[in-house]
Amino acid sequence: MMKQYGVLVVDDSSFMRRCISLIIEKDPQFFIIGIARNGLDAIEKIQRLKPDIVTLDVEMPEMDGISALKEIMKTCPVPVVMLSNHTEDGTRTALKALELGAIDIFLKGSLVGENIKEETINDFLSKLKVIADSSKVQKNKEDSNADLENIKYDKQQINCGEKLMKRELLIIGCSTGGPSALQSILPRFPKDLCRPVIVIQHMPPGFTGPLAERFDTICNLHVKEVENGDILERGKIYIAPAGFQTLLEKSQDNSIVFKVEDMKNVDSLYKPSINVTLNSAAPIFKDKLVSVILTGMGNDGLAGCQNVKNNNGYVIVEAEESCIVYGMPKVVFEAGLADSQVALSDMFETIMLNL
């Protein structure tokens, strides 16, 4: 018998509640268990109706999405997906929601309106299903600053001397659940980490810039969203921009340059795609490249990790026990491409040992 999931739709707009409900009910595995008009209404109905998953509006009267999310995670934890308007305030608030335990973000404009792509709707429904099925809820994180006091790593391994460098580049790929996972890794890199770090995180357009700004405030290293023509520099964290593909190229003076392109010819649902970036980096860095695949749905990263291994690079994947969605790490592991598979709690130390 096909498993079914009850969804609570939370939005102050009756029009939006209706639209979102109709989209969700296109999939026979979903049924709308209830609707809520604001955060207070949502908390009461979550406690009473016990939904499998909640779609939560960011901006609402009486109790907004952030206040509601804090209370939900404290009193009645359930997987929550945020629905945001494409505004500066909406984007920053949605990112805050990810820090507090929401699992994913979708733009309302990509789901409701004219010229909506069927593949976007299918991706939305597929992610809801995977999230509901995983039944994993992230802990409430009031303080996103990492505890830097108890970090153990070999000081010699972060000496910039060429002889002590095992690797020259770290690329981290992630999707659903990724921002929270990144939060447990990126702030822990020490100031004297003499390697560049590139992050490929599946997100809606407009979110990666604020994500980079947020991490820049809590990380020891400078964090920036990649721009076309940027030179890859040691000791910086680069976040690939959503809506484009990010590649690496070697210039005539041997510097490594970022190319940020639309690449409509690339057959990938994801922009940025982990495969695209890894495929460009692997032939350049060969055995000096470390690739990390964290939580996420689908198989983006599989072909890229194959390329990394073909060039003698090192691949680390997150273990199922800590993944919000054990999709991307699973396919890499089952393909026999992972040199290490570790839980998120051990990921930073494993990365440091192999840089």
UniProtKB/TrEMBL annotation:
Domain CheB-type methylesterase, first and last residues per copy: 163-355
Compartments, as annotated in UniProt: Cytoplasm
Catalysed reactions listed for this entry: L-glutaminyl-[protein] + H2O = L-glutamyl-[protein] + NH4(+); [protein]-L-glutamate 5-O-methyl ester + H2O = L-glutamyl-[protein] + methanol + H(+)
Active site: S175, H202, D300
Record-level GO cellular component terms: cytoplasm
Enzyme class: hydrolase
Main location, first listed in the record: cytoplasm
SUPFAM superfamilies: CheY-like, Methylesterase CheB, C-terminal domain
GO molecular function terms attached to this record: phosphorelay response regulator activity; protein-glutamate methylesterase activity; protein-glutamine glutaminase activity
Known EC number: 3.1.1.61, 3.5.1.44
Keywords: Chemotaxis, Cytoplasm, Hydrolase, Phosphoprotein
Location of 4-aspartylphosphate modifications: D57
Posttranslational mods: Phosphorylated by CheA. Phosphorylation of the N-terminal regulatory domain activates the methylesterase activity.
UniProt family annotation: Belongs to the CheB family.
Domains: entry comment: Contains a C-terminal catalytic domain, and an N-terminal region which modulates catalytic activity.
Functional description taken from the UniProt entry: May play the central regulatory role in sporulation. It may be an element of the effector pathway responsible for the activation of sporulation genes in response to nutritional stress. Spo0A may act in concert with spo0H (a sigma factor) to control the expression of some genes that are critical to the sporulation process. Involved in chemotaxis. Part of a chemotaxis signal transduction system that modulates chemotaxis in response to various stimuli. Catalyzes the demethylation of specific methylglutamate residues introduced into the chemoreceptors (methyl-accepting chemotaxis proteins or MCP) by CheR. Also mediates the irreversible deamidation of specific glutamine residues to glutamic acid.
Protein name (Swiss-Prot/TrEMBL): Protein-glutamate methylesterase/protein-glutamine glutaminase
Classification lineage: Bacteria, Bacillati, Bacillota, Clostridia, Eubacteriales
Name of encoding gene: cheB_1
